[in-house]
Input
Amino acid sequence: MTPNDATTTTERTSDTELVVTRIVKAPRYLVYRAWAEPDLFRQWWAPASFGVTIVSHESDMRTGGSYRLMMDHASLEAPMAFYGTYLEVVPGERIVRTNDEGTGPGPVSTVTFEDHAGGTLVTVHERYPSKDALDQDMASGATSGWTEQYAQLDQLMQSDAQA
Output
């Protein structure tokens, strides 16, 4: 499924898979940078309406490298850590990473970037270790912020493209 302009689609494609797509109105190299560079990533990743802030983001984006996000919210006693390993990085085209936070294995996320009609088609494919794990993330709201995140990415791309 290909999204319409500025439409985020989120689709559960199997018991363990979630696919999110969006056409971002910016060149692929800029959209990739927004995913790859921690300072840019921090500006759009956390949905503003969630009240979550990214306290820090460290990333060694290369195959075999790792990342660590520290996120905070007024309801938390301490910031939460989100971290994982980059299984594959093809600059400008593809990022595959684990999401290792929590007590068990998390989803493996594959993000692809494709040129598309004056913008970039971004596809996030998340493969969860089990049906229950995806069910839990969907029930908790952990998968519900994509539309807002991508709207924030679009805003960042517009400000960056004009700078």
User: Anything to note?
Assistant: The radius of gyration is 15 Å. The longest helix spans residues 146-162. The CA atoms of residues 37 and 59 lie 8 Å apart. Strands lie at 9-14, 17-24, 53-59, 66-72, 80-90, 94-98, 108-116, 119-127.
